[in-house]
């Protein structure tokens, strides 16, 4: 809904309404000397609680501007224990200066019920880099691989991209050690004759900041509740008699367990051979039993701490033990996965803690009405009702009528609720704080709305330098007007040559 001259005040009223519903909602709106809205930040109770559970790694992205004022949408995201995208807060920004980013990060950090994140993943924007160094000095910054790999088509020639991009990707994604990456990078750069490419040179200099990141679209909260519900009421099928499999099926969420189960199942295809030992460590080579061409992995065990690490680095990346580590545990007859390899954020109990809020007056718990509890209560009631009704045709028909009637009533209640909300919005259009609409702004770099496949395929209006027309499908090289003129000139020349009596066919 858009009401000219009132959008900013309506947004403020909406935020106030959300705060009245739940104290866990927080927001900040900034305005300039002319009372024009410049920035705003908000986070609801669910976003703030999610940060407490899953805020170790966050993604800060500003590649969207979707509102009528072209303000930059800046969501701050993370990954929950179902490997879904989860929201930690959101903002509208009028520009992408370091001062604006610094303001946002500080407001966001004040709203979160925990300290700074361990890692933040961003693009390579210099203003963002400066802001993070000030607002989050103890947070490790890494660049998003999605942004980096997407720029190859722009930064190297079309021929080099076509012939060597696959080699660049293989070097980036499949190198297991810094030495392996560096050797592979130099090899493909030289092969592609790109050693003088400035972008590649700068990218190589900051190679330690690259990161493998999850870039999921927002499934957000309904899907998270659905996954939580499945974890409570469903049990995955086991594939083996391993005690470790049974134990982890109880601890991990279903999605994480499915990944772990696949690694555990695959470990039987490997043999473990000790290749080197000294006072500090033992090195094992992990060979696939069948398939001589497969890569040999190296598992290193520290004798003092018993810490195990693998050259594939799956645990460091996904925080789930790989099949090679599990093959070693199996050989050592370790039935239960050691606690140091079980990440709490991947478990069903990841959200089983109270989240305290010290914003405003005193400490209080951030809370909202639990959709999951209500859903479970209704689900159990409905299951019992259905199980009893299916015994006879009469009771089945009775429950069908009951459910149909209830569904119709819910639709009516929803319509009344939506009408009431619209009415409340219209009534609450107060101008007491005197906010004016923001200026239209343009984001720099990739600050455009991400386009879908159909939009990308649509051709832009183009101007032909031959005929001067705009919106044509041709250009100067195949302009009908120029081709027609050339054809006429050729015909006139042929006629002149025939008048001279020269027969070129006889020459």
UniProtKB/TrEMBL annotation:
MF terms (GO), sorted A to Z: zinc ion binding
PROSITE patterns: ZF_SWIM
Keywords from the named record: Metal-binding, Zinc, Zinc-finger
Pfam family, one: MULE
Amino acid composition bias (Acidic residues), ranges on this chain: 494-507
InterPro entries named in the record: MULE_transposase_dom, Znf_PMZ, Znf_SWIM
Residue span of region Disordered: 468-507
Stretches assigned to the SWIM-type domain: 297-333
Protein name, entry field: SWIM-type domain-containing protein
């Amino acid at each position: 809904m858009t009401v000219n001259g009132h959008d900013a005040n309506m947004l403020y009223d909406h935020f106030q309404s959300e705060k009245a519903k739940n104290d866990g909602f927080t927001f900040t709106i900034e305005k300039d000397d002319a009372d024009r809205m410049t920035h705003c930040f908000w986070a609801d109770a669910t976003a703030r609680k999610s940060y407490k559970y899953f805020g170790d790694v966050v993604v800060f992205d500003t590649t969207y501007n979707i509102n009528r004022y072209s303000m930059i949408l800046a969501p701050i995201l993370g990954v929950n224990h179902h490997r879904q995208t989860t929201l930690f807060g959101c903002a509208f920004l009028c520009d992408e200066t370091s001062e604006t980013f610094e303001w946002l990060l500080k407001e966001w950090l004040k709203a979160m019920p925990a300290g700074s994140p361990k890692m933040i993943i961003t693009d390579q924007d210099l203003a963002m880099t400066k802001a993070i160094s000030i607002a989050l000095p103890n947070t490790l910054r890494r660049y998003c691989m999605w942004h980096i790999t997407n720029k190859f088509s722009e930064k190297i020639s079309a021929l080099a991209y076509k012939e060597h991009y696959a080699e660049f990707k293989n070097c980036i994604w499949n190198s297991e050690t810094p030495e392996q990456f560096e050797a592979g990078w130099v090899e493909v750069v030289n092969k592609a004759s790109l050693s003088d490419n400035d972008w590649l040179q700068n990218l190589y200099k900051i190679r330690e900041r690259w990161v493998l990141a999850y870039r999921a679209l927002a499934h957000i909260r309904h899907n998270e509740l659905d996954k939580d519900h499945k974890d409570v009421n469903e049990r995955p099928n086991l594939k083996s008699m391993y005690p470790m499999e049974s134990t982890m099926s109880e601890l991990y969420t279903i999605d994480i367990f499915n990944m772990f189960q696949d690694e555990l199942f695959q470990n039987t295809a490997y043999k473990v051979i000790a290749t080197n030992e000294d006072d500090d460590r033992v090195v094992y080579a992990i060979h696939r039993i069948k398939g001589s061409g497969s890569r040999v992995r190296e598992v290193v065990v520290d004798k003092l701490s018993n810490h195990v690490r693998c050259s594939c680095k799956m645990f460091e990346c996904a925080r789930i033990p790989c099949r090679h580590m599990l093959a070693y545990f199996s050989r050592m007859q370790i039935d239960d996965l050691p606690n140091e390899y079980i990440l709490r954020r991947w478990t069903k109990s990841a959200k089983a803690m109270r989240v305290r809020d010290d914003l405003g007056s005193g400490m209080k718990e951030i809370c909202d009405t639990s959709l999951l509890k209500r859903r479970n209560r209704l689900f159990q009631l409905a299951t019992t009702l259905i199980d009893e009704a299916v015994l006879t045709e009469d009771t089945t028909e009775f429950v069908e009528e009951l459910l149909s009637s209830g569904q119709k009533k819910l639709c009516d209640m929803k319509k009344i609720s939506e009408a009431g909300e619209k009415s409340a919005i219209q009534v609450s259009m107060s101008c007491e704080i005197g906010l004016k609409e923001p200026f239209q702004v343009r984001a720099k770099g990739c600050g455009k709305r991400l386009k879908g496949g159909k939009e990308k395929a649509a051709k832009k209006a183009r101007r032909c330098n031959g005929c001067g027309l705009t919106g044509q499908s041709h250009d100067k090289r195949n302009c009908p007007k120029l081709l027609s003129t050339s054809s006429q000139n050729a015909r006139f020349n042929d006629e002149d040559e025939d008048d001279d009596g020269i027969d070129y066919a006889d020459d």
